[in-house]
Amino acid sequence: MNLTSSLLLIALLIAASAFFAVAEIALAASRRLRLRQMTDEGDARAERVMRLQEQPGPYFTVVQIGQNAIAILGGIVGEGALSPYLAAALRRWLGAEAADRAGFVLSFLFITSLFILLADLFPKRLGMTEPERMAVRVVRPMRALMAVFMPLVWLYSKGADALLRLFNLPTERDDRITSADILAMTEAGARAGILAAREQQVIANVFELDTRTVGSAMTQRDRIAFFLRDDPDAVVRLRIAAEPFSTYPVCDGDIDHVVGYVDAKDLFQRVLNGQPISLADDALVHKALIVPDRLTLAEVLEQFRLVGEDFAVIVNEYSLVVGVVTLNDVMSTVMGDLISPLDEEQIVRRDDASWLIDGVTPIQDVLRALDIESLPHPEEYETLAGFLMVMLRRVPRRTDAVHCAGYKFEVLDVDSYRIDQVMVTRESAAPPLPAAA
What we know:
The protein is α+β, with helices and mostly antiparallel strands. It contains 15 helices and 13 strands. Helix 2 (32-40) packs antiparallel against helix 3 (44-54) and helix 4 (57-90) packs across helix 6 (131-148).
């Protein structure tokens, strides 16, 4: 075989190897969502690619047969085609034996480099860039090769399956899409500028509904505006004017004995009609939804859906009222600062290295604002105030501080044992261990 024929054969082998490289990476990298979209648009090839992804064993077996056979043949042809010419050229400066060895080494390096660059790196980069488009282009010839090499495919596939079972490994591709997959895609979209940062945060908040308890969104016990069943008309009117809310719990004797709730719209209607307000009227007081404080926000939403309510009273394991929650509270948790007015922000950034944070702020929001993965003992608290209590092992006082994760958490204001404001400051270097001061 002359040099021209050998080089032509090498070029054909490189092209064939490149085809198998593209076929391999394109099938592996193709996204099922995109393939399904292409199928809905009328591309039947995309459906064939999805079927191959469900049972990829024979497909990859053909790829490996082709790549290994081409690699061996390429080495044989390349060494025989180039070594004599290179050796002859090197004999001008080297002895015959040294020139033969050098010619073989140079021929090997040249052919290997061609295969690495043109038959491996370049086609795989191409396949990774547009995997779905490449996959639908190669699916027909690959199916034909699978039919041609069926006996070998069956033999090698059974051997590979046996090895996978021997090591207790899955034999089929898992195409389930998890919440982590979706969050990763949205984060990538936000970094690429496709999604706005606030839009990405809303999506992340939706998935947090299954992990955040109702306590992270409720109005705390000490902030609840409520009526007693025997409150006279004048007291009800004064409280509405002083604490305007959409819904008020109605209690019998104290806040821990809730008998129902009253809607502010019903009260206003009576006022406008000149009627007296009597909370002893059962037509005015609605039955309240009572939920335990360990429910997640997703479970509370389900409770709202089942009973057709948008207000619930939250009790602890001792049947004591710890707070109230509305549908608007849950939706505000999802939407974040997209709908929250500026004067109600729980986290206010003062400058590049400090934040002013309300003590009842959910710890997930604090972690997100400070860009912290986690804080110590996360299972023991749900709010920033709870974190400080756990770290200090007592009720915090003004000027108490905790150093943790490279930040200083300093208590600025305490009202009747309730932590109102916390100053968080980024420190220049994180201490080796969390410390309380």
